[in-house]
Amino acid sequence: MLVDNGKSGTDVYDTTTLQPLVHLTFPSRIVHAEFLENPYNIFILTADQTVYQLQSPGKEETAGVH
Length: 66
Hints:
mainly beta, globular, disordered C terminus
């Protein structure tokens, strides 16, 4: 899940554990975001009309990271 934290950026959370996976910051605020076919691919559009396609870390990539 993507959670906007205002000016500090956006966090991606694991919906099973509700633990943060990654913190993202952008030069402009997010106006649209969606998960693509693969649940670890995220499409983000910012207010300055920049498009980002990111790969969020999966459970196997964050296992053991605290």
